[in-house]
Write a structure and sequence with these properties.
The structure holds 2 protein chains of 2 kinds. Chain A starts with a helix and ends in a 7-residue tail after the last helix. Chain A is mainly α. Chain B is about 70% helix and about 0% strand. Chain B has 17 helices and 2 strands. In chain B, strands 1-2 form a two-stranded antiparallel sheet. Classes of the chains: A mainly alpha, B mainly alpha. At the A-B interface, helix 1, helix 6, helix 7, helix 8 and helix 10 of A face helix 8, helix 9, helix 14, helix 15 and helix 16 of B.
């Protein structure tokens, strides 16, 4: 086990390094920071020269990569190209907001999906099962941004017609959110719709997964044994079947969670939430490669870490999986 | 579908499909037994049959697959819907009531109306949204099929090579796959399209395809790894067939089930991805209409002009849903083993 963890850690570091090479080389090949500078309005040749000097833009690419890595490690991703503003504070703040959003969305999605999946499996081919299946198919076919827009239209029109504000449709806070419980409620009213949007795809995916996993377990020999020795049905389901059926879900949730850090781009853009996705889109539109690289590296770290967690959790929860 | 139901469904049929072919030696590859060759555990009776020199008739396998597919009513209905929508898209010039860039200054941002046949309403330039949606559907469907085909080819070739050769080649290719999977897909897509691929549908399609072949490669690799040890591969080798011939003539037919299923799901995935890209402004560029872009344009008109957002989105949902149902039906038909897992 320990050897496995160490090997897996080392491998993750190698992947991370490869990802950093890929990100830097890739972006450096398709962008040109100097060209980007020349496109800026109101910037003198002298300023450009200074920036080129400061960012070592005239060096060959592998030297620039070295400087960049040094910046990433010692200087928290360094600064933006033109303004020389540090990247990290913005990114850190955005990361906090995105985490609030996806932790809430994923927790609710897991609770709901586990319930739906287990019930569908226990009542296979019932009306409930078919309805749940249909909903999950629809949930996976709805474009995230469209769902977000439709909800916005719905709640804006409710506000216009009935003068009732149920949820806000943009931003993280009101201008004056108050403090304590008021702040929390205000935040909840702002995040409710984005959470709902993120939940739809997750619930659709997890509930299908949970149903399949539960079906597999319910038909397993040890569950039959449990029934045969006269355990009451509730104990069979909860103690024997359910707990084992949860194991595969852990993996898929962990993988998904890692991906969502960089994957809530669309939702955050539509709802104008100051999160990672919006950070990324605005910087990408501005054309400055350095913040974009920072974003890609941070999301890659999240995916790698959660891959690692998924693997380790699987081995830990399921003794049949031998990690060596 | 449970294991019991599906095997009970299949067994009598396949026994009928097994034809005794006297004299069919070990050198004859069981060319079209995707289920049996890929997943020996499920159809042990078929396994037995070709070990003892029986051959499964090629066509009957497809006949049974077709039968299983047509039993999936939602899949059949979806197929009909998709065919109709494709025809509408292909014959957009004939079907659309207006040209997609035709102005109607009598109706500016008009809700759906029979007046002038603006069934989906009009936008801020008085352009008919039904027509724009039809042309947008053409672009989006085209991109989706292009992406799925290209990604399938890349994924199959990479997976086949990795699975067949194993060892260092396999390791290198799978680490490449790991690397692609580590990068956040949408973000990388956005970066690449921002700098390389904006504009023409072909470029958008190329970039999407270059990033979504990885899952298929993994699936194909898995099947090839298990096929590699089969007797018919050994036999083909003994008969002097080259690597390429073994891979693509002998092993590939046994992989066609999972490939077709995955390709179908890739189409749906590509539609949603392209829509998201276009919506964010990094996909197909005007004047070519694409469904995601239409939604983005409609959004600009504000929350009162609900039809500009609703209709293009509904079309995307219908297409993606239909494609997913077809994929589900195909999985029932071609890849029952995977069905048990999913």
């Amino acid at each position: 086990m320990v050897t496995y963890v160490i090997r897996r850690l080392l491998y993750s570091i190698v992947v991370l390094f490869a990802a950093s090479v890929l990100v830097f080389w890739g972006l450096s090949l398709v962008t040109s920071p100097i060209g980007f500078l020349r496109m800026q309005p109101n910037i003198s040749e002298q300023t450009i020269q200074n920036i080129v000097e400061r960012k070592h833009l005239d060096e060959p690419i592998y030297v620039r990569y070295g400087y960049w890595i040094k910046d990433v490690v010692t200087n928290k991703f360094g600064t933006e190209t033109v303004s020389d503003q540090p990247i990290w504070p913005d990114l850190k703040r955005a990361m906090g907001h995105t985490l609030q959003l996806i932790i809430a969305a994923e927790l609710l999605a897991i609770l709901l999906a586990v319930g739906i999946g287990v019930y569908s499996a226990l009542r296979q081919y019932s009306v409930f099962d078919y309805t749940a299946t249909t909903f999950s198919f629809v949930g996976l076919a709805i474009p995230v941004f469209w769902l977000a827009l439709m909800l916005q239209i719905l709640f804006v029109n409710i506000y216009l017609w009935f003068d009732v504000r149920i949820f806000y449709v943009a931003n993280l806070n009101s201008v004056d959110p108050g403090s304590g419980i008021h702040f929390f409620l205000d935040r909840a009213q702002h995040l409710a719709l984005p959470i709902l949007v993120l939940m739809v795809a997750s619930v659709a995916q997890y509930s299908r997964f949970m149903r399949a996993s539960m079906l597999e377990v319910v038909n397993a020999d040890y569950v039959r044994t449990a029934r045969a020795k006269g355990l009451e049905e509730r104990r069979v389901v909860m103690k024997h079947a359910f707990r084992n059926a949860l194991i595969p879900l852990v993996t898929i949730v962990a993988l998904n969670f890692g991906g969502l850090m960089g994957g809530a781009v669309v939702t955050e853009t539509v709802f104008a939430l100051d999160g990672m996705g919006l950070f990324f889109i605005t910087r990408l539109n501005a054309g400055d490669p350095y913040p974009v690289m920072a974003f890609l590296m941070v999301t890659a770290v999240f995916v790698i870490v959660f891959n690692l967690i998924a693997d380790l959790a699987y081995g830990w929860l399921d003794p049949r999986v031998r990690l060596d | 579908m449970t294991e019991n139901v599906s095997s009970a469904d299949r067994l009598p049929g396949e026994r009928d499909g097994v034809r005794v072919a006297p004299g069919a030696g070990a050198g004859t590859p069981p060319s079209a037994t995707p289920v049996a060759a890929g997943h020996p555990a499920v159809s042990s009776d078929l396994e037995l049959s070709y070990e003892s020199g029986l051959e499964v008739e090629a066509r009957s396998q497809w006949a049974y697959a077709r039968m299983r597919f047509f039993r999936h009513k939602l899949a059949v209905a979806s197929l009909i819907v998709l065919i109709i929508l494709s025809l509408v898209a292909i014959f957009a010039d004939q079907v659309a009531p207006h040209a997609y860039d035709e102005f109607d200054f009598e109706h500016i941002v008009a809700p759906p109306t029979l007046d002038g046949w603006h069934l989906f309403g009009t936008d801020e330039l008085g352009r008919d949204y039904l027509s724009r949606v039809i042309y947008g559907l053409r672009t989006s469907l085209w991109v989706a099929f292009f992406v799925a085909t290209l990604a399938t080819v890349i994924g199959t070739v990479v997976g086949a090579i990795a699975g067949y050769y194993g060892g260092v080649t396999d390791n290198a290719l799978m680490r490449l796959v790991d690397l692609v999977l580590v990068m956040p897909l949408l973000a990388v897509l956005l970066v690449l399209s921002a700098y390389l691929g904006q504009g023409k549908p072909v470029r958008v399609g190329l970039i999407v395809a270059l990033l979504i072949w990885v899952n298929l490669a993994r699936i194909v690799r898995g099947v090839f790894l298990s096929l590699r040890e089969k007797e018919f591969v050994e036999a083909a080798k003994a008969a002097g067939a080259g690597d390429l011939r073994i891979m693509f003539r002998h092993m590939l037919p046994s992989t066609i089930g999972p490939i077709m299923v995955t390709m179908t799901l890739l189409i749906a995935f590509a539609i949603l991805l392209e829509a998201a890209l276009s919506f964010l402004g990094f996909g197909v560029q005007p004047p070519t209409p694409a469904l995601g872009k239409l939604i983005a344009d409609g959004q600009v008109q504000g929350f009162a002009a609900w039809w500009l957002v609703t209709f293009p989105g509904l079309v995307i949902v219908i297409v993606a849903l239909a494609v997913n149902f077809i994929g589900d039906g195909l999985r029932d038909a071609l890849d029952p083993q995977q069905r048990l897992r999913a």
